[in-house]
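Sample log: Kanamycin biosynthetic protein.
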Amino acid sequence: MGKLGDMANKAKEMAKGHPDQADKGVAGAERMVDERTGDKYDAQTDKAADAVRRSYGSDGGHGTTQH
């Protein structure tokens, strides 16, 4: 596996061990993208954030993203 894949696996393992902190990071990244794009891609960022949360076994504590 390449360097990027190794880094992604390490990040996923860290997120599994600290899901609350990972959820905060995902929410912050989603919020930043939404703010910078004027919510133009809100549906896509919601889907992406949900996919990331599923990758480490979290639903963000509420099943859907919040804005």
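Observation: The first helix runs from residue 3 to 17.
Observation: The chain is about 70% helix and 0% strand.
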